[in-house]
Amino acid sequence: MEISVEISLYPLEEKFNKPIELFVEQMEQTKDILFETGKMSSYLSGEYKTVMQAMTKAMENILELSPSAFVIKLSNACPI
């Protein structure tokens, strides 16, 4: 099943650039996922399991690095 995800990352500390850059870098290196960045959100699409595994790994890395909040919208009906 193909899905699309809109995800926003809000690091909750003064040095907010590093977690965002790390998340983008990890997503760009993931094979079989279409990844685009926007001004307020990033967009991912691909096979459900591939997208979810990549997001889970990247989110865990960010949460270990920095207190953060993620806002996620997920759909199987709205392709990027």
Describe this structure in words.
With 80 residues, this protein is an alpha+beta fold. It has one domain (2-75): Alpha-Beta Plaits (2-Layer Sandwich). The protein has two helices and four strands; from the N terminus they run E-H-E-E-H-E. It has helices spanning 17-28, 48-65, and strands spanning 2-11, 33-37, 42-47, 68-75. A four-stranded antiparallel sheet has the order 2-3-1-4. A hairpin with a 4-residue loop joins strand 2 and strand 3 (42-47). Helix 1 (17-28) runs antiparallel to helix 2. The longest helix has 18 residues, at 48-65. The chain is globular, with a radius of gyration of 12 Å. It starts with a strand and ends in a 5-residue tail after the last strand.
Topology readout:
Elements: E1 2-11, H1 17-28, E2 33-37, E3 42-47, H2 48-65, E4 68-75
Antiparallel strand pairs: 1-3, 1-4, 2-3
In short:
By secondary structure, the chain is α+β, with helices and mostly antiparallel strands.
Q: What is the helix/strand order?
A: EHEEHE
As a whole number of angstroms, the C-alpha radius of gyration is 12 Å
Helix content: 25-40%
Please give the domain count: 1
Mean pLDDT: 94
Q: Please name the CATH architecture.
A: 2-Layer Sandwich
Summary tags:
80 residues, alpha+beta, Alpha-Beta Plaits, four-stranded antiparallel β-sheet, 2 helices, 4 strands, globular
